[in-house]
Structure to design on (119 residues):
């Protein structure tokens, strides 16, 4: 999946999750969702590898479930950079839930994209 396709998927995921869970995630507008998706991609590129290496013992101890905590921390950082009034979560638990849902959505979309190229 290309970079722009991943940006579109993350943007649509942010918007749809803010509609499905209005008390957990807040997105001011579609433009804020696009900016949040862009900031998330930058943080995934720069900060996530460092956090993944630092949290490797916890990730191994929890059989990989701690990676959702790392993803939630990245989402909260995205919220802090974009601004809590523009893009925010009600709690860290909401960020964990959003991280799990976004991981599932990205896995489904990536798998669907891989099947298209294998045929």
């Amino acid at each position: 999946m290309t970079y722009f396709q991943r940006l579109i998927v993350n943007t649509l995921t942010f918007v749809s999750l803010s509609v499905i869970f209005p008390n957990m995630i807040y997105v001011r507008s579609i433009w804020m969702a696009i900016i949040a998706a862009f900031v998330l991609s930058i943080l995934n590129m720069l900060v996530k590898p460092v956090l993944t290496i630092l949290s490797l013992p916890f990730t191994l101890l929890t059989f990989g479930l701690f990676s959702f905590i790392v993803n939630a921390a990245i989402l909260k950082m995205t919220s802090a950079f974009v601004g809590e009034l523009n893009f925010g979560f009600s709690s860290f638990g909401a960020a964990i839930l959003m991280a799990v849902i976004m991981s599932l959505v990205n896995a489904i979309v990536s798998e669907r994209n891989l099947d298209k190229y294998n045929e």
User: Anything to note?
Assistant: The longest strand covers residues 25-27. The chain has six helices and two strands.
